[in-house]
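Pasting as-is:
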Amino acid sequence: MQRILAPLAIGLAGAAILVWLGTWQVQRLAWKRGILNEIETTIAGPARPLPDQPDAEAQRYRPVALQGRFDDQTLRVLVSVKRQGAGWRLISPFTTEDGRRILLDRGFLPVAEDIAAPPQGAVEIAGNLHWPDDRNSSTPENAPATNTWYARDIDQMSQRLQTEPLLVIARSVTPPEPDVRPLPVDTSGIPNDHLQYAITWFSLAAVWLLMTGVWIRRRLTGKET
């Protein structure tokens, strides 16, 4: 019995830690699903007017309905869309009926296509407020001089186009643009890897117990010196 106490203690302690880590990831999975469900509910909620005092924390993803006109300017943001390839997000200034000038993300255009001018005349927009975080450690700096943008920097873009630092991502544009496909906000870009992490920790716990069993067997059969 003395020969198996050490491996048994080490095996049970290690497995307990790994199971605890897996259980914690299951709890995090439930927490993340709750957040994603809340975001999806917000995105699909009833449209509201533009806020007088924008708040990135309280109003992110808020649905809005706008009427107004585009100005004849477009910033192009390089993106890659699944099953579509490389293209541009087209962002133009939009002046609402009550005179507010904001940024409007019109949607996606493949790089092979000529940059589409904004629609002329009055249009209706259904969309969502957003404060995107496109930049990471490998994102190049924006190049406004050549109208090549790699991240939607709201402050920088609003200064360039002389608008409020407020961005709306279009869900639909009426009348629609024939060559531009809206890229509405959704939760697909928010990582949720907790299930994979949980499976990994539980699998490691099983392997740990298996190896502990092998260790104990070797001690009992005298194969371990």
